[in-house]
Structures
1.
Amino acid sequence: MEIPHSFECETHLVHAGRDPASHAGMVNTPAFRGSTILSNSLTEWESRKLPGNPYASYGRFGTPTTRALETAVAALEGGHNALVFPSGLAAVTHSLLALLRSGDHALFPDSVYGPTRGFARSVLLRMGVDVEFYDPCIGADIAAQVRPNTRVVFVESPGSATFEVQDVPAIALAAHRVDAFVVMDNTWASPLFFQPFEHGVDLSIQAATKYIVGHSDALLGVATANERAWGLLQQATHDFGQTAGPDDLYLALRGLRSLSVRLHRHWESGMLLAESMARHPMVERVLHPALPGDPGYSLWRRDFKGASGLFAVALRPVPRPALEAFFDSLELFGIGLSWGGYESLCLPMDAPTRNVRPWTHTGPLLRVHAGLESCNDLVRDMQSALNRLQKWA
């Protein structure tokens, strides 16, 4: 279903990728399950194999459920087209494999998502790609690290675990001078709060597991490309045989419809929770780019339309029993990986791996996700747990 560009984002979220008339009037696009797609004639079979034909010749190349999500996400991000993957990391790794070859140079921010760093340092290096990390706050000065053979400049804003905001337009300008592709992990903000292609990005990735699915019940990734990167992404995805299951796709389409309502609530609760934690004497620093005073605040104000519910907290140094007491006293925050669902999470994190600028904070680092519970209850629960820490100070 084509949605006029004059409509606002919330309207796109409700209607994009839907075509009830094609599915017996069903409001939601059904979960199409199948591998074999039959043709009614030899002519139809041959037409389905032509490049660009919207009808797939095999289930691996997509179903109406697949295309519904891909179409909706591409429209939201402002890209040319999108492809789905079985996880966010799969979207990252296969996007990189689509663009890079032996002898290329690739730049990654020092605050990049840990598994992305691991892939770059192991698989890409093994492939003969020259991997280099850069200060995420470098901005236009990244031009000094861009080489004639730089093929990919990866950005993730804000950065994983430590939430540095990157000057994506300045970095993109330097990358495009040598015809490099700018690849972004846009999971934190989603296309609601950051429009990657308006800021010079060529390929945008989201772990749809997080806010798009929104209910912690499916694993999924999406990569959206502009016209320049689309052919490479599409070919590599087909070469590697990547696809996603129909039930996960259906759950992502379901979650997409309420994304705006949920994300605004996550934003509001996350800000209130972060502000309350920042005032507690056991907190050394809250890492949240939407807080005035954060090093990335001005860039966040300039480039973002909102914030999600995810941030980090650096605590003052405490002994291990104190940290155990803190987590034992939390009633509403679960300890678990991922985020973006309706439940609140609080996760202890190891000291971030850094190649450029070492992490110097010595106290525990917590990653906090504000869910959809009452914010007053979340604040009370967190303050009570922090007060237990204070007894060890």
2.
Amino acid sequence: MNATPVGALLLCRADPVLVRPPAHLLRGRMLLAPAGSHWSVIVPEDKPWLDGGEPVEAVLGGWAHALAVGVNWPVLALWWDGERAGFTLASGFRRPVGYIWLADGTPVGEDEAMRTFAARLGLDPVVDVQALEELTLPDPESDARARLVGLTAVLTRTGLTLPVGLTPGEPADRLRSVAHEHEAETVEWSGWRDAVRAELDVVEEGPLGPWLLGRRARVLGAAQLVVGVPLTAWGVARRSGGWAATGGVLIAGGLVRLGYERLRR
């Protein structure tokens, strides 16, 4: 592990069609490929940790958080360099959880992190947690690379199947070449207009999508206005700030739903 160059992988618990829109927001060239049942893997083509001065764990942690905010699936960032290796799990607006090993495999993370990791991914609280906790125990036979491989092995029970050759601990250039061999699609930043469209795609493809587009959205929007306008008037007349605010929220939501399709175009 000591001679292994810097490398990184992003594992998303969603199919590529869902990962593609938010991946555009990372403002870099990424290679996206399926990685099993309802899993995707992102291989960075660029190496901002070499140019920007930030360590690889900081770069990957930021990417994972950016991908996870606003979606309903978690993102796992795996990273390694000549001295350490580790992971960061981002899930919505919750505080990310992570763990670190030294190059020789010595654990330096918090034990509770593995239990939080398992809970957020919906892993088995007995079998999987036991396997994860073994990665936090001293083991002279396991270096940092072996620890990351062991971590992904536990996740195979959730459907994760990394493409052959995309193995934690490999050099970044090797990972990029392997991703191209597997015909991974290229995703890259193309400006703010496309970024906004990509963000809207994320919302539309999520659970809120049916309530923003189509007849259902228009009916709901009209209903919100019908209820919100008199409720606001009643709240103002009774000097009830709470009811007036509630009516205002309904009016705002109705206007958004009625005008969303035009705004989207």
3.
Amino acid sequence: MDLQLNGKTALVTGSSKGIGEAIAAALAREGAHVVVHGRDSVQADRVVAAIAALGGRAFAALADLTRDEDVERLVAEVENRVGAVDILVNNAGGSGPKSDWQTTEPTQWTASYDRNVLAALRVTTGFLPKMRQARWGRVINISSGAATIPPATGPDYSAAKAAMNAMTASLAKAVAAEGITVNAVSPGTIRSAKLEDAFRNVAADRGIAARNAPWDEVQSGVLPLFAQVPLGRVGELAELADAVAFLVSPLAGYITGINLRVDGGFSPVL
């Protein structure tokens, strides 16, 4: 299926590794000119080179999204190079130090809100004016299943991602008449390098499987300890990235304000 992204420009924040890298690669394969964002120039340049090696177009832009001046510089740099961003994927953020309700501190909540919600707010408001001028745009906020089914631990992260969902719904209503769609995507248990390493460590520590055992053996033994996923397996990065690629395409023009849960059926349908 042609997603009609040829000629579009996409910025994926936090795309120098993991989920963001997979999304950037998927958009590039569909013909988009991709801005790879990160804070490590070596990592960002590696992703750009990988995209170019497959015939895609990309360039790197560095910024700390918790700093207003960095975001202002990022917006100016990107718009000077490409004119406007058609597609924005707010992927940067993530969780901080592990905490629970006995150890959590207000400073953790402030930091989590800043790197997830306010980072997305800074970038979105920076690029939104030109989307409005063009009367076309796509904004995706990468949320989390923790926003709707929060665990007992990491309450600051769950709360921040829930705020991103509310932000998504509000912005979607505000810009819908201007040809801009805004959606959230909530990954479930996705096989990133970090997750696979954690699963293999648990498998070895608990005697479930050798650390270097085949992945199917590791995930079948370890996944039930983390989540009861009806599909019975961990999601792949490509599956998440393909879902994002569809949502930002012209083919999804009548979809806005949703939270798409890519989690193998873990979340109940509400």
